[in-house]
Structures are given as C-alpha cells and as structure tokens.
UniProtKB/TrEMBL annotation:
Source organism (scientific name): Sellimonas caecigallum
Ranges in coiled-coil conformation: none
Matches recorded under Pfam families: LysM
Protein known as: LysM peptidoglycan-binding domain-containing protein
Domain LysM: 72-123
Length: 131
C-alpha cells in the first residue's frame, strides 16, 4: 500500500510538472500575442497620425489663406504709378510692394517705372478663391 500511495504522489508531482510546462508555454504564447498586438496598435496609430499630419499640411484656409496668382490687362489712367498699382493689387501678404513692382516691370518688359496714360499693362492680382 505504501508503494501505491507513493506512485500516486509521484504521478501527482509529474502531472504538476507537466502543468507548469503547459502553463509556461501558455504564458509565453500570451506574451507573444500581447507583443504582436502592441506592435500592430503602434503601427496603426503611427499611420493614422502621419495621415492626419499630411492632410493638414497647409492648415485651414480661414487660418492660413492660400493666395492664387492671376493676371489681367488694364489700361493705365492719368496719375497711375507702379507703386500705386502695387498698393491696389498686391493683396498677398507674401511679398512686398517693391517685389511686386519688380515683377510688374519684368512681366511687361519695362526698363523704367514711367507709365503713360492709355498704355496697356499686364498686372498680377491675388485671390484666396481658386478660379
């Protein structure tokens, strides 16, 4: 009888050892799945964040307006000057009036700043609306 009880005890120990091995395997599998889940979650958040940053690269037009450059032909009136036209048509905050005058002179192949009434002049103007 003593032998049978020892066998039962030793079997119980063996079973416990197997259960510990199984438990360790389960823990390892759980950790692996947890690690994979964390990597997938991190990758998903990274992709979503990058998409959000890229889509809002320019910001809202109300906050940071984008100016489109357009051209039109005007007839110079008596008293018009290039700097006066710059003040009237240079609505972009991205360039100074002097830079605008320089562009006007280059666009119209002008060497001097003098204007003649009735002269045809191509000017640039800016608008936040795309036409």
């Amino acid at each position: 009888m003593k032998n049978s009880s020892r066998n039962q005890i030793s079997m119980t120990r063996a079973e416990r050892g197997n259960k510990k091995k199984i438990s360790k395997k389960r823990q390892a599998a759980f950790r692996f799945r947890l690690l994979i889940g964390a990597v997938i979650l991190f990758a998903s958040i990274s992709v979503l964040s990058a998409g959000t940053l890229l889509s809002n690269a320019k910001g809202n037009r109300a906050e940071d307006p984008v100016y489109f450059e357009y051209y039109k032909n005007i007839e110079v009136k008596d008293g018009d000057t290039l700097h006066g036209l710059a003040k009237e048509y240079n609505t972009s905050i991205e360039q100074s009036d002097d830079a605008y005058v320089k562009k006007l002179k280059k666009l119209n192949h002008m060497k001097s700043s003098g204007l003649i009434p009735g002269q045809s002049l191509i000017i640039m103007y800016y608008d936040t609306e795309y036409k």
